[in-house]
From TrEMBL:
This is ZN292 protein. Residues 57-269 form the Zinc finger protein Rlf/292/654 TPR repeats domain. Transmembrane segments: none annotated. It comes from Oreotrochilus melanogaster. Belongs to the krueppel C2H2-type zinc-finger protein family. The keyword Metal-binding applies. GO terms for molecular function: DNA binding; DNA-binding transcription factor activity, RNA polymerase II-specific; zinc ion binding. Keywords: DNA-binding, Metal-binding, Nucleus, Phosphoprotein, Repeat, Transcription, Transcription regulation, Zinc, Zinc-finger. PANTHER family: ZINC FINGER PROTEIN 654 (PTHR15507:SF16), ZINC FINGER PROTEIN RLF (PTHR15507). Pfam families: TPR_Rlf. It comes from the Eukaryota.
Length: 270
């Protein structure tokens, strides 16, 4: 109660002294209120830059503090706290609680500034500092949920950027990106075929081969810009990126030749 009173009166140095004493106590420090109150004091003081240094190591506790701060109507502080936890996780490549943090961050960011363009720009800024390519999935989820029709195109562009990274040590991730692109563009037969072949080259399984066979037995379709989910520009930028993962260009081969080469790669499984 004393801490709350001091904060309400904006007697921040006194409040911080009291709160830090409570945080240093082995029993009282278990109450997350004092950690939350410390962030509030830092936010209200010239020491605001210390927010990143004062972050707790446990993200689950941090998420609880962020949500409690938001419930008190302090959206700006909650957003700063969320970024204080999220940024180090992205920089360290740590996926612990990352889905929750990105989801909460997206809601707070849009509440703070409803502009969809600003939201997308901030997503790109956070993606640039990420060291683990797997974070593209929670970011694509919030972009697709929050941005609407344009969100799908942005997600396809993110996948294309991710494929240009060095993923030789992570074929599972690379395969997952191809599957995601195929999921986003289910009506584009050419891209579906390239993705299926790329997945087959990475996985070398009968299941992935059967997908290739099924797609090549479908009747060829002319690409129709009017029915495409993405702009022409995005599609034609994506095609050469996708083809880099192929052992051969299927444009110049009929299905019989593709089948023979795929079966050769299957080896004994064939």
């Amino acid at each position: 109660l004393r801490a709350r009173y001091l904060i309400a009166c904006e007697r921040i140095p006194e409040a911080m002294a009291l709160i830090k004493s409570c945080i240093n106590h082995p029993d009282i420090s278990k109450d997350l209120y004092f950690h939350q109150a410390l962030f509030t004091c830092l936010y209200m003081s010239p020491l605001e830059d210390q927010l990143f240094q004062e972050v707790l190591t446990d993200c689950k506790s941090g998420i609880e503090i962020i949500c409690n701060t938001e419930k008190e109507g302090k959206t700006t502080l909650a957003l700063q706290l969320c970024e204080s936890f999220l940024v180090p996780q992205l920089q360290n490549g740590d996926m612990y609680c990352i889905w929750d943090l990105i989801f909460i961050w997206s809601k707070l960011q849009l509440k703070s500034n409803p502009s969809k363009q600003v939201f997308v720009d901030h997503c790109y800024q956070l993606l640039r500092i990420a060291t683990n390519v797997r974070v593209i999935f929670p970011f694509m989820k919030v972009i697709k949920d929050e941005v609407g029709e344009d969100g799908l195109q942005i997600c396809v562009e993110i996948c294309g950027c991710a494929l240009q990274l060095d993923l030789r040590e992570d074929p599972i991730m690379k395969s997952l990106i191809y599957k995601t692109i195929a999921h986003f563009l289910p009506n584009d037969l050419e891209i579906l075929r390239i993705c299926a072949l790329s997945i087959f080259f990475l996985e070398r399984t009968l299941e992935s081969y059967y997908t290739v066979e099924h797609l090549y037995k479908c009747a060829d379709e002319e690409y129709n810009e009017c029915t495409s989910s993405v702009q022409n520009r995005v599609r034609f930028e994506l095609l050469p990126i996708l083809k880099k993962g192929l052992f051969f260009d299927p444009e110049f081969w009929n299905f019989l030749m593709i089948k023979q080469n795929c079966l050769a790669l299957l080896g004994d499984k064939a």
